[in-house]
Amino acid sequence: MYRSLRAQLVWGIAGCLLLGMSGCAFGPSALQGSRPEYNRVIQQTEKQELLLNIVRLRYGEPIKFLQVSSIVASWNRGASATGGLTIPFGAADITTSNTANIGGGFNYSETPTITYVPVEGQQFANQILSPLTINNLQALLQSGWFIDRIMALVVDRMGPLVNKPVAPTYSQFLQLIKIWRQIQDRGDLSFIWHPQADFVLANKLPPGAVDLRIFNSSSQTQYLNYKQNPDGNYQLVQPLNSVVMELRYANQEEADQVSKILGSVSMRPKGELVERVALNSAVIPPNDYANVEPVTQLSMNLRSFSDMLFSLLPGVSVPPEDAAVALPMDPTEIKPIAIQQGDSYPSQPFIAIPFRGRWFAIADTDRVSKTNFMLLLTILSLQTTSGGAAPGLTLPIGR
After folding, report:
1. DSSP readout, 359-376?
2. Can you name the residues that pair with 68 across neighbouring β-strands?
3. Is residue 303 within 8 Å of residue 197, measured between CB atoms?
4. Residue 40's pLDDT band (cuts 50, 70, 90)
C-alpha cells in the first residue's frame, strides 16, 4: 500500500509537469485559435466603417477611413506543480495514517497591440478621390462579378451614354448593360488579346543602323521588330496587343439593338454577330486599330470611390426629424443599397452601426444590397495604394 501511494504521488506530480511542458504545442494551438478570429473581426470592422461613412455622407458630414496597419499579439503562459506525502513511522495501520497532497497550476494571457493608420493626404487622394482605372475595371469584369452591377456602380459615362437619372441617355445606358448581362449569362462575353497597329519608334533607319540584337520575330508580341521600307531603309516598330471585350450576339436583332444604342460609335460590320469592344480611359488616347479588324472603342469616364459613395445616398433612410439636416434626395432614384434605420438594434442585420442615437443597418435578407456592398468593399481594396501598410499579424510565441 505504501508503494501504491508513493506511485500515485509520483505519477500525479509527473502529470502536472507534463501539463506545464505541453507549451511545446502551444504556438500552433494559439495560431489556430486566434487567426480566424482576428480575420473575422477585421472584416467585420471594415464593413462597419464603410457603412458608417455612407451614413455620414447622407448627413452631409465628411468621411474618414482608418487602415489596420499591424496587429502584434503576445502570448504568455506558465505552469507549476507541487506534491507531498506524509507517512508517520511506527503507525500500526499505515493505510489510515498516510496523508498526500498534489497541486498544480497553469496560467495564460494575451496582449494584442493594434496599430491604425488614417487614410489621408496623397493616399486619400489616390484611394478615395481618384477615378477607378481601366485595368481595375477589367479585373472586376474578369473576376466573376456581373457586368451590369459593375457598370451601374463605377461608370459615370460610357461613349454617348450617361449614367445619371437626369440624363436623356440614362434609359439607354441601363438597357445596354442589361443586354450585356444577358450575353454574360449565356457565356458569350469574354476578354481576348487583340492586336493593334504597330507603334513606329523610328521610320527611316539606314541598313547600317540596324541592331541585330533587337529581337525580330513576327510571332512574338511586345518586342521591337524591324520592317524594311521599299527604299531600302528600315522601320523600328513595336507590335502591340490590348485586351478587348468580345461579345457574341444570339441573333441579328440583339446585335442591331446594341448598335442602335451605341450609334456611330459601334464599329461592328453589318450582318456580323460578333463585336469587339475596347474600354478606354477618357484621359488616355484611344488605341489604334486602323490596320486590324474593326473594334468599337468606348471612352469611359469612371467614378472615384467618393463618387460611388454619393451614388448610394438615395438608399439611406433617415427619420422624419432628421429631414432638415440630411442631404435631400429624389425618392424615385434607384437605390443600389438599402440602408434602414431604427431606434433599436435590428433583429437580423448583415451589418449595423449606431449613429446620431439611431441604428442604421443593411438587412441580412437583402441579397441585392449585400452583394453591392461587398462589391464596394472589393473596389476599396483595389484602390488601396502602397502608401498604407497592409494589415499583418505577428505571433511571437516562445517555447
Report:
1. EEEEETT-HHHHHHHHHH
2. 116
3. no
4. confident
Spatial separation of the C-alpha atoms in residues 18 and 169, rounded to whole Å: 76
294 with 269: CB under 8 angstroms? Answer: yes
Is residue 223 within 8 A of residue 238, CB to CB? The reply is yes
Instruction: Note whether 221 and 240 are within 8 A (CB).
Output: yes
User: CA dist 369 to 84, 235, 335, 354, Å?
Assistant: 66, 55, 9, 19
What pLDDT, in 10s, does the model give residues 87-105? 555 555 545 555 655 555 5
Q: List the chain domain ranges.
A: 2-121, 156-197+240-303, 307-383
HSE toward the beta carbon, residue 390, CA cutoff 13 A = 6
H or E segment and range at residue 42? helix 26-58
CA dist 84 and 16 (Å) reads: 13
Nearest to residue 74, comparing CAs of 113, 45, 35, 102? Answer: 113
160 neighbors 399 (Cβ within 8 angstroms): no
Separation CA 254–CA 261 (nearest Å): 11
Which residue bears the cell 445596354? 176
Q: Whole-angstrom Cα distance, residue 312 to residue 331?
A: 12
Residue 103's pLDDT is 58
Q: Does residue 348 contact residue 364 with C-beta atoms inside 8 Å? A: yes
Q: Which three cell numbers stand for residue 161?
A: 451614354
DSSP 392: -
Please, which pLDDT band fits residue 34 given cuts at 50, 70 and 90?
Answer: confident
Nearest 5°: phi and psi at 161?
A: -105, 135
